Amino acid sequence: MSQETQKQAVAREALRYVVDDAWIGVGSGSTANLFIDALATIRHRIKGGVASSVKTAERMKSHGIPVEELNDAGDLAVYIDGADEVTRAGAMIKGGGGALTREKIVAAASRKFVCIVDASKVVDVLGRFPLPVEVIPMARSYVARELVRLGGQPAWRQGFVTDNGNLILDVAGLAIADPVALEATIDGIAGVVTVGLFARRGADVVLVGSERGVETIAARR
Ligand code: 5RP
């Protein structure tokens, strides 16, 4: 099964977690896009979606899926999104597409997080994928120096501005043994908006596409 086929398989499998007559939290990225395409086939069963990025909102609208603001939808039953890396315990690196802040907000407001990935994303230790950190523009250099003090090698993502008008530093060289602790440490640096570590609120379920089909991991039991 190709990587694309694995993504399509987990996107379809995620439909099992969609709650009827509810607003669904919807993530960003190529795997989430395939989920949106699948969600369109059952759009009559749901109220619509709460988007984690402008692109996701546009894709849902293009499929005729109603889009609601999180402020008006209230708490969500489920949030479905991809990841750049995920452990079997449900800790993730996210933000490869730069939507990490809104993704973290929608995830926080959701009772269940279903992470959908192909097999290449599952790791024992997070950190091979450079960790995205969204920063307030005036804090870019200061935050970068603090990240170096933590042992990372930050690179300014060139030509990219987030949906919130901020910048991204991609931090290489971190072997993240304790994702919950590092998430709290980086969140505590002045000027950091969001770190792309999703460990305090990790995934509840990870759907992994592989050669053998879709594996379901109940991550936080
Ligand atoms: C975007 C994200 C995505 O979930 C992550 O980058 C995975 O994307 P893809 O499904 O395209 O590999 O966090 O900010």
Q: Any overview of this molecule?
A:
29% of the residues lie in helices and 27% in strands. It is an alpha/beta fold. A hairpin with a 5-residue loop joins strand 4 (85-86) and strand 5. The longest helix has 11 residues, at 3-13. The protein starts with a helix and ends with a strand. The model has no long low-confidence stretch (mean pLDDT 97). The structure holds ribulose-5-phosphate. Ribulose-5-phosphate binds next to helix 2 and helix 5. Ribulose-5-phosphate (5RP) binds at residues 27-32, 81-84, 94-100, 103.
Task: Give the topology.
Blueprint: H1 3-13, E1 23-26, H2 30-40, E2 48-51, H3 54-62, H4 70-73, E3 76-81, E4 85-86, E5 92-93, H5 100-108, E6 110-118, E7 131-135, H6 140-149, E8 153-156, E9 167-172, H7 179-187, E10 192-195, E11 197-198, E12 205-210, E13 213-218
Parallel strand pairs: 1-2, 1-3, 3-6, 6-12
Antiparallel strand pairs: 4-5, 5-11, 7-9, 7-10, 8-9, 12-13
Helix pairs in contact: 1-2
Bound molecules: ribulose-5-phosphate.
Residues 27-32, 81-84, 94-100, 103 line the site of ribulose-5-phosphate.
